[in-house]
Amino acid sequence: MSQKLTTKQEVEQFLSQYDTFLFDCDGVLWLGTHILPKVVETLTLLRSLGKKLIFVTNNSTKSRREYTQKFEKFGLTVTAEEIFGSAFASAVYLKNVAKLPKEKSKVWVLGQSGIEEELAEVGIESLGGSNQALDEEFTTESPFLKLDPEVGAVIAGLDTKVNYHRLAITLQYLLQPDVKFIATNIDSTYPQKGMILPGAGSIIESVAFASGRTPVACGKPNQAMMEAIVAQHGFDKKRACMVGDRLNTDMKFGRDGGLGTLLVLTGIETVDKIHALEASEQPLYFADKLGDIFELLQ
Ligand SMILES: O=C(O)[C@H](O)[C@H](O)COP(=O)(O)O
Ligand SMILES: [Mg+2]
Questions:
Q1: In this predicted complex, what is the ipTM?
Q2: Active-site residue flag, 148
Q3: CATH superfamily of this structure's domain 3-58+221-297
């Protein structure tokens, strides 16, 4: 049974088990541009206790560089090496696993600057994405219908500017069987302040359905992302805890990786969702919010 953190002793006992914490971002640290209560204090406290902090987000709209700027706005100094985003995971997958041949080395992006920037970082040329010409209404005269024969893959992720034009051109590439199909992540929804919005998975599902294809999904819970994080930071997974707000991505990612798990209720899930699960599928711990760690220790 999942244990709720409600007292100082419980928090101390929880913290004593782990040296490394992997934090999901949307719904755990912040909701869009709103930082959640006592998050800064909690992260600062954990750092002062000598804990290693790593940030693992499925939100592909920003690159690791752009995330460092977002952290900075909240007064938190976090390096790009401490951040793993699904845009980065997808770029690394393309570069190291999918290995596109030279003549098919470009990528069509259904998504935002995070994906474009991470692809550029690993030396991959991208098309589509944030190109403003795609904001225009789709017609059969679209210049993008002249497909680039050098495109060898589609990467699809969260895109708040998604429209019929972008979906239509993405489909044209996906109808080519030799073009690989990569999804940054599978989240059906994500939390914003006061509302739940359609997530990357809901957008990707549209072109997956139209093309009859299933993408390789690179973000949480894919354990390739976990292995990349462990390879970079070299921590003991048994002494690490995944903190998240979603069961089928964050908690599965932690559980499958052999980490401890803490679910916070500031994003997607509710306490009823936890209790509806088999004991073996429940997170080890849950809390109303991440900031409870700081508040309960006072
Ligand atoms: O739809 C998305 O891309 C995701 O729901 C979302 O942004 C998740 O981000 P995370 O909670 O992993 O930080
Ligand atoms: Mg989240």
A1: 0.97
A2: no
A3: HAD superfamily/HAD-like (3.40.50.1000)
